[in-house]
Design a protein that fits this description.
By secondary structure, the chain is of the alpha+beta class. The chain contains three helices and five strands, in the order H-H-H-E-E-E-E-E.
Length: 156
């Protein structure tokens, strides 16, 4: 009966670690549970069978775990999850901002505090100075810092 418990704990722990590596990387909860299960199985083997058998189980568990983890990493299963293409496009930062302080526009979306405003033909992302402004409201440019445009609602 003790062997069934030891083997079950180690196999369940190893399975959880493989699941962590291959299917849900980054969560660490599944891997931690797997490690706890494996350590519990090895600890139980020391308690139930003594030192010589316990060290044998610990060594065997380490070797089998290393082999299974290497195989699961080399299997290529998680290439499906990895982004293998890079974005080659660039943002055109050289284009001058088409608005100046005092210009007015109409909000295309609610500004909470970021959103989009139409200034003539240009649609730009803007931010407020902390206030929330509803969609389809007239706003005025009050400050420009670099490429960041700050607006406030026109009092009409």
């Amino acid at each position: 009966m003790e062997w069934i418990v030891v083997i079950s704990l180690i196999v369940i722990g190893l399975a959880l670690i493989v699941i962590e590596i291959v299917f849900v990387p980054g969560t660490t909860v599944v891997g931690a549970l797997g490690l706890i299960s494996m350590v519990g199985g090895v600890f139980y083997s020391f308690k139930a069978f003594g030192n010589p058998v316990g060290w044998g189980v610990a060594s065997g568990t380490f070797i089998v775990s290393a082999i299974v983890i290497v195989i699961s990493l080399k299997s290529g299963v998680w290439k499906r999850f990895a982004l293998d293409k890079s974005i080659q496009s660039k943002v055109n930062d050289n284009k001058p901002i088409a608005v100046k302080i005092g210009d007015t526009g109409l909000t295309l979306s609610a500004l909470r505090p970021y959103g989009n405003v139409e200034f003539g033909e240009d649609k730009l992302e803007v931010t407020t100075l902390g206030e929330m402004i509803e969609s389809n409201t007239e706003v005025k440019v009050v400050k420009i810092e670099g490429r960041k445009i700050y607006v406030e609602q026109l009092n009409s």
